[in-house]
Amino acid sequence: MNTIDNIPTGKFKRTSELVRTGAKVGSNYLRYYSKKAFDKNYTRDELDASNASDIYDGLKNLKGSALKVAQMLSMEKSLLPNAYVEKFSLSQFSVPPLSAPLVRKTFKKYHGDYPEQLFDKFTSESVNAASIGQVHKAEKDGKKLAVKIQYPGVADSISSDLAMVKPVAVRMFNLKGKDSEKYFKEVENKLLEETDYVLEVKQSLAISEACSHIPNLKFPKYYPQLSSERIITMDWMNGKHLSEYSKTKFSKEDGQKIGQTLWNFYMYQIHHLKEVHADPHPGNFLINEDAELIAIDFGCIKKIPNRFYTPYFELAVPENINNPDFFLKKLYELEILRDDDTKEEVEYFSALFHEMLSLFTSPFHKEEFDFGDEKFWANVSNLSEKYSQDKTLRKMNGNRGSKHFLYINRTFFGLYNLLHDLKAHINVNDYKKYIP
Q1: Banded pLDDT at 49 (limits 50, 70, 90)
Q2: What is d(CA 420, CA 422) in angstroms, rounded to the nearest whole number?
C-alpha cells in the first residue's frame, strides 16, 4: 500500500478535496444515466461501486473526522448499498499509512524523542491504519508492544470539517432553529476527545480494570510513561479483527461464546458503569485463538446521565411502551416531543417512535434473543426504507431527541450488527451475574 507524506489540514485544502470528490461523483451519475438511456435494465450496481470508491478515496486522503464518517457509515449495513459498506469498511483498519519520515517527525514532535530512542525495536511500516491513527509494532525489555500514532493535524481540522458538513446535514435532516447546535457540539466534543490520547489511556485503564472479571474478555496493558497526547503504547495482542474473524468458518459454539461476551461487556458498562465504549465497529475488537474477545480502543466513551438512562430503558419494557400515557410522558423527557409541537406533530412522532423503539428494544423483551434471525434484520431494513421515503417526515422539524441519542443509538446499532455477524443467540440477562 502506498504511504502518504502529508495530510491536508487547512480548511481550503480539505474543501478542495471534497469538491474534487463531488465532481467525480457527478461524472459517475452522467455515465450512469447515459447507459440507462440505452439499456432500461441497467442497474445502479456500477454507479454505487464507482461512487463508493471515489468518495472513499477522497475521505481517506483527508483522514480524521472525514474518514471517521466513512467508518461510522460502514456499520449501517441495513441502510447503505453493499458497495458502500464494503468500501467504507476499509476505514476500520486499512487505509494508506503515513510514510516512515512523517512517522519519525510526528513521534519527535509529540514525545520529544524518535521511536528508536524509546524502543529496542520499532517497525517503521504500520501494521494497520484507520481514521485517526495508525499502529506500529515495537519491542522494549523483551515485551512486544503496539504503538498507536495519531495523524498530524487531525484534532485541528475537526471543527472546520464539521462546519463543511453542517449545511448539508441541516438540509438532509430538516433541522430547524438553534436547537440543532446541540447535536453538532456533541459530535465535535466526542471527536475531540478521541484525539486526546492522554484521556484515552486514562479511559482504557479505567474500563479494563472495571470489566476485567467478565469471562472471555481480554484487554492489553497500557504504558502511560511511553504514551503522550498523540501516542499510545500498549501490549501487542494477537488475534484477528472481528470483521476478518466473522468471514471465517467459526463454529456455532465460538460465535455464541464471543457474542455473549460482547453483550455482557456492553450491558455491564451501560447498566452498571453508566458509561460505554461508544464505537463498536469490528476494527476495535480482536478474537484470539481461544475465541476470547479483546477490546483494544477506548477513545470514544459516552457517559450516560440518569435523566436519559431512566426514561430510555423504561421504554425497553413492553408494558411501558404500550401504555399510551406513560409512553407520551417519556417522549417528552427524552426530548422527542417538544412543547411547541402541533397536535399533528405529536401524533405523527408518537407513532413513528413507538414503531422504532418497539423494534430496536425487542432484544430486551425476552430472556434470549437470536441476532442471527434474518427476520429481525429485514424488519430493520424495511423500517429504514419506509421512513427514508416518507414525504411527511421531510416536512417536519427534525430537531428530535436528546443529544445523548446520537452515541447511544450508534452504540446499540453497532453492537447489534456485530452480534449479527457472529450469528449469536444470547442470554439477555446473563450480564447481571457480573454486577456486584
Answers
A1: confident
A2: 5
